[in-house]
Amino acid sequence: MNIRTIDGGVTAAKGFKAAGYAAGVKYENRLDMAMVYSEKPCVAAGTFTSNVVKAAPVLWDRRIVRETDGSVRAVVVNTGIANAGTGEEGLRLCEETAAKAAESLGTDRDEVLIGSTGVIGPQLNMTAILNGVERLAGMLSDSREAAHTASQAIMTTDTHPKECAVTFTVDGKTVTLGGMAKGSGMIHPNMCTMLGYITTDIKISKKMLQQALSQVVPDTFNMISVDGDTSTNDTLLVLANGEAGNKEIVSEDADYDAFREALFQVTRDLAIQLAGDGEGATKLITCHVVNAADRDKAKILAKSVITSNLTKAAFYGNDANWGRILCAMGYSGAQFDPERLDIFFDAEGCSRIQLYHDGSGQPFSEEEATALLKHEEVVITCDMKEGPEEATAWGCDLTHEYVNINADYRS
Amino acid sequence: MNIRTIDGGVTAAKGFKAAGYAAGVKYENRLDMAMVYSEKPCVAAGTFTSNVVKAAPVLWDRRIVRETDGSVRAVVVNTGIANAGTGEEGLRLCEETAAKAAESLGTDRDEVLIGSTGVIGPQLNMTAILNGVERLAGMLSDSREAAHTASQAIMTTDTHPKECAVTFTVDGKTVTLGGMAKGSGMIHPNMCTMLGYITTDIKISKKMLQQALSQVVPDTFNMISVDGDTSTNDTLLVLANGEAGNKEIVSEDADYDAFREALFQVTRDLAIQLAGDGEGATKLITCHVVNAADRDKAKILAKSVITSNLTKAAFYGNDANWGRILCAMGYSGAQFDPERLDIFFDAEGCSRIQLYHDGSGQPFSEEEATALLKHEEVVITCDMKEGPEEATAWGCDLTHEYVNINADYRS
Known about the structure:
Two copies of one chain form a homodimer. Chain A is α+β, with helices and mostly antiparallel strands. Chain A has two domains: 4-276, L-amino peptidase D-ALA esterase/amidase; 284-407, Ubiquitin-like (UB roll) (Roll), CATH 3.10.20.340. In chain A, 33% of the residues lie in helices and 27% in strands. Chain A has helices spanning 56-67, 87-105, 126-139, 144-153, 206-216, 254-276, 295-307, 309-316, 323-330, 366-373, 400-407; strands spanning 4-6, 16-21, 33-48, 72-81, 112-119, 162-170, 173-182, 195-200, 235-240, 284-292, 342-346, 353-357, 360-361, 377-383, 389-396. In chain A, the strands form two sheets. In chain A, strands 1, 2, 3, 4, 5, 6, 7, 8 and 9 form a nine-stranded mixed sheet that branches. In chain A, a hairpin with a 6-residue loop joins strand 11 (342-346) and strand 12 (353-357). In chain A, helix 1 crosses helix 2 (87-105) and helix 7 packs across helix 9. The radius of gyration of chain A is 22 Å and the shape is globular. In chain A, 62% of the residues are buried. Chains A and B meet through helix 2, helix 8, helix 9, strand 13 and helix 11 of A and helix 2, helix 8, helix 9, strand 13 and helix 11 of B.
């Protein structure tokens, strides 16, 4: 399929506008609110946190996406305060935010989705939020810059914004898909991750949009981890406004396959950006489990490796301590034969290093291994030699800076 | 029951001797091998790691404890090298160690249990090990000092040795139970923990000894976590030589109950010592979940809280960031109503601080909370208000020093 990556974000698809604003929700002079808007009504799909403690905006969005057939026109996001652990008052403030956005945009309250991220516990600062919503509505633009500002405005401890866009052809029409996401702590998605917003001009039914999203999330956002903590606020939304003019996708045909592949690429790209920019991270760690007997096992093994604190700390120290990888596979819950398994390290421009073969460590140059591990992207390959399945998970190292950030997050 | 804590370790019970020695397995001039010996044959019980990758000594001990009816006379432990991920050669070296000990002690090879801890991967340095075994056999003593030296010799990154002993009465006879254990990284026991050795002079059948151990481990060693990594080497052994002269315990009678309670106290004491001395830890964190609908749920919730990296980092920073506790409960897998739940902090000499009540944060003095969190032992209480069950888990904070230790462990 001819899917081409382009420079862009949430305004790349036709008919979408965005804005970012420093509303002063928790800090002054820092972009902390974003809005995404579609002139035409959109169908929306979403995946949400599996955490029993769900933030108010998660409850709000889930109701609109899952329980109504209605269209969506806008998304409003704030950082600084997560609006989680805030009880009924938190839900009321979420509703009030949506009502204000509806009023400012001339839409219905139930056409506005909400996202929040930040400290769990405090109630929203509504003076800042309501003022922010009004200002954002007046600043909306379909420019590349507007999308970029919005992607900056949803950041918390992220060190850079995450955006991605692709274009492809469906039914003879050019379709565009663009998105933004934010990390970067409390990242261990289960259903989906933190905050991610994807917009597209494809014409697709709500049912097929949700199906495509549900199919790509388990292999992308759900395969990354920064710290093993599944957030209360994880939300990934896709809005499709149909402006590309293609014949509406209503079944699993070739057009659907093309769209799903494009959505897979965008979600994978954003997920990898999140893993590599985990709190305090100095490198992206990819674990590729190959030749496994079944795919679920491959996924469990890959995710266990990139979640292991000891493995992550060893990577921070550029220490080729492969025993910790083997150990993390061993306690993952997946069954396998440790006497029949190979482990390798790869990095761009380096010769592959084999560390383990069928039950015993292999001789390797510590110097070469350390040089390889100093790269910003390191790949661990675990060859199970038992079948045709594979899986990939992405994570980052565990660093002093992670402890710095999280020992003093609220202040 | 009249169970009294006494000063002592693995030589506290009648008929047990111990020794520690600097054998040079990996480092020079550092106590790194220990031996425990009973003049009389012992019945033995054990719990072992659930990690699929099991170290050679785990396979060796498990066979002897589970698959033979034979007695046990000695345990030999080395640190520095874990003899895990070492394949058939590793098993052969384990066997060779046991054979050497049997020769030196005049016992059978299958009466010798082995424990190893340290780096996963390399083969044992057998020159050092075999010399060490011979020296240890010549140094055995039933003195308090010998037990202490042995407890020092099984340490790796532990900052202090862990010992515990109690005495109580069964069938009119004084019975003693003493033990030692080591942590302090790769600690997230599942079945049992790292290395722990308990000796007792009680007369008890092998079956009842194993039953008592299996009953106390789920609430003690299996309720602590330092870093979420379940080791390849976790082993907890209990040896009983019958020297107390009581009528043999062969069923669940009052004598069994007294013994099980004493064993519970010793395992809990050692487990708490391990949690508080986790790698890099500055404090012991106890999470007490009370008034839960069922006990399994209470255990899952308590363990999820003390395993959360974000919660652990906040405690390091003395930051009363209770939202992370609520979040960790939420992703634990246990179902509960976050709108009906209270969270408190306690520490010795401090007034209790309530942080959360029925869906919303409670006002509290940040100054008082920080002062409380600076204590070396902090208790989190989560009141579920839904039933009669409770559970306790123990962990430690996540610190810069944890990263220091684990970014550079092998060298």
